[in-house]
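Data card: per-record layout.
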Amino acid sequence: MTTHAESPGLFAALAKNITEAKDLARLALRAVHYLVRGKREPGSVARQMKAVGNDSLFFMCVTMAFIGAIIAFQSGLQSKKLLPDFSMLGATFLKLLVRDLAVSVGALPLATRVGAGIAAEIGSMVVTEQIDALRMCAADPIDFLIKPRFLASLIMTTMLIVWSGTVAFVAGALTAYLAFDVPLHTFFNIQLVDVGDLSIGLAKCVAYGAAIPIVSGYCGLSTFGGSEGVGWATTRAVVNTSLAIIILNFFISGAGFLIFPG
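The structure for this 262-residue chain is written out next.
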């Protein structure tokens, strides 16, 4: 039973979370606004695209290759126990990858790497008063710092997920061939993938690509204190971006099930 002493703390935490959600929504709207009407700094988006995409490529490929191999192996083991027919193993695996697995599982390690980097960089600028210097120069930190990362993440998250998902599928195909003698031409079966799967997967790529820089940038801008504050902001960014991906996955998957029940 909740005591009277616990109730104020619970309501205070709830009110704080609601306030942070509103601040996040405002930051996201301002970032979208500056995409259209903000200042153009040559090379800023390209630098962030390299930081988000190129620098994460090897990490994502290795991670998704192991995930694809593990899931294909476990799926093959379960199929062997129930019905030793591997003709649809590749088709089912590909549908799962496109609709949810490649995007949601791939976005989590990407969020930890990219989100932590954004929060640490912006948090360091806050504690060294560089953000205050930007405001004194009439430069909005959201336009100058968040917008390039937002646009770069939208583009590169989608490209990284597509590429790393392909790596996961190839790793799964090799695993199925070596472990269960499934021919590669049998595994490479796309007949179960439809427009609904592609639409849901693309929607998740865009949503996750937008959430990572917005949540991480908010954590960085709300940094206070010295180096300890930067460390705390980085931790918050990793936790909150991962939580945002899980929540978005729930709602997008639910909406996708209603729109594309197949």
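Known properties of this structure: Residues 141-180 form the longest helix (40 residues). The radius of gyration is 21 Å.

See the next section for split statistics.
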